[in-house]
Design goal:
With 357 residues, this protein is α+β, with helices and mostly antiparallel strands. β2 and β3 form a beta hairpin. α9 packs antiparallel against α10. The two termini are 35 Å apart. The protein has three domains: 91 residues, Butyryl-Coa Dehydrogenase, subunit A, domain 1; 110 residues, Butyryl-CoA Dehydrogenase, subunit A, domain 2 (Beta Barrel); 140 residues, Butyryl-CoA Dehydrogenase, subunit A, domain 3, CATH 1.20.140.10. This is Butyryl-CoA dehydrogenase.
């Protein structure tokens, strides 16, 4: 893990043990190669592995995320067999190519375009901050197929293999956190895609893009809850070892207050996350619960990791210590899958009866 973080390179050798343990299929049905887990069970798995390393949580949650869920919900049986099955079985990695250099939170402002040809489609444009950019076998990619369309209209979804003619990928170096995750950019210069790689109906791709957002945010909340648990575990060990003015660091009341706040943050994040998971398992509306869980968890992770670095003092400045990595990963978690600001807007709109995804 330390080597992967330092080298900013995902270690492929971690995939096989997770695959053999049956942890990569998530909530994808068994008939399509998944584990067929309910949301609570899947969240438990994601939380546990994430407490050790956030990158592992991202890997375990991938199949049930936007790519897998998009294919399950909108793909044809042939697409599910060709693309979803290996993803769910853990023999393939995939990225969700929605964000562009000039459109992040406002994803509907994308500029990538796709033109129909006799052989299929030709895509031109760029995507950025895409997970698994360097390691992904394919990408669920979005582009405008209707010239002059604006907003969510006229967008179509495509499966773009990593080896598609005209596609180049570059990995981003020097990221603040989640360093071993191969995040990067996709550049499509007249990238050729077969007609059968169109996912869903032409011009209805934004529905594909949004179809798994709720589930993705739920698993991010579970991943973050695991991060909080990891911070608390590291702090609990350190304050029993570190001595200051002839006393254990854990004997000081100010330390105890910080630790107590961490416990409360963890229990609240877990409660909100698993309540949202239970609502989804029961087929009940869960949007508000998921937004609340993710918002609370990501801000709690930032607060908890900041206090942990403070307790570690100068050692917290060193990347050799786990809390340093958690602090950096926590900041990333406040941005990916919906910033705190966007989540607050969405929650407010729900209260006002103007709900959207």
């Amino acid at each position: 893990m330390a080597d992967a973080e330092r080298d900013e390179q995902f270690p492929p050798q971690v995939v096989a043990p997770l695959r053999e343990a049956g942890l990569l299929g998530g909530t994808i049905p068994v008939e399509w190669g998944g584990a067929g887990l309910d949301h609570v069970s899947h969240a438990l798995v994601v939380e546990e592995v994430s407490s050790r390393w956030q990158v592992l949580g991202s890997l375990v949650a991938m199949a049930s995320g936007p790519v897998g869920r998009g294919l399950l919900t909108h793909g044809t049986d042939a697409q599910r067999e060709r693309w979803l099955r290996p993803l769910a079985e853990g023999t393939a990695l995939a990225g969700y190519a929605l964000t562009e250099p000039d459109s992040g939170s406002d994803a509907s402002a994308m500029r990538t375009r796709a033109e129909r040809t006799d052989a299929g489609y030709v895509l031109t444009g760029a995507k950025t901050w895409i997970d698994w950019a360097n390691d992904g076998d394919f990408f669920l990619t979005f582009a405008r197929t209707e010239p002059g369309s604006v907003g969510a209209k006229g967008i179509s979804a495509f499966i773009v293999p990593h080896d598609a003619p005209g596609l180049t990928t570059t990995i981003m170096r020097g990221k603040l956190g989640m360093r071993a995750l191969s995040v990067g950019e996709l550049v499509m210069d007249e990238c050729e895609v077969a007609a059968e790689n169109l996912v869903g109906e032409p011009g209805r791709g934004f529905a594909v893009a949004m179809s798994a957002l709720e589930e993705a945010r739920l698993m991010v909340a579970a991943r973050i809850s695991g991060g909080i648990a990891g911070v608390l575990r590291a702090v609990a060990a350190y304050i029993e070892e570190r001595e200051l003015f002839g006393r254990k660091l854990g004997d000081f009341q100010m330390t105890q207050a910080k630790v107590a706040d961490m416990v409360v943050a963890l229990e609240c994040a877990r409660t909100l996350t698993f309540r949202a998971a239970m609502l989804k398992d029961r087929g009940l509306p869960a949007s508000r619960a998921v937004l609340t869980a993710k918002l609370f968890a990501q801000e709690a992770y930032m607060d908890v990791s900041r206090d942990a670095v403070q307790l570690f003092g100068a050692y917290g400045m060193s990347e050799e210590y786990e809390v340093n990595r958690h602090f950096r990963d926590a900041k990333v978690s406040e941005v990916t899958g919906g910033t705190s600001e966007i989540l607050r807007i969405l929650l407010s709109e729900q209260v006002r009866g103007r709900s959207r995804r």
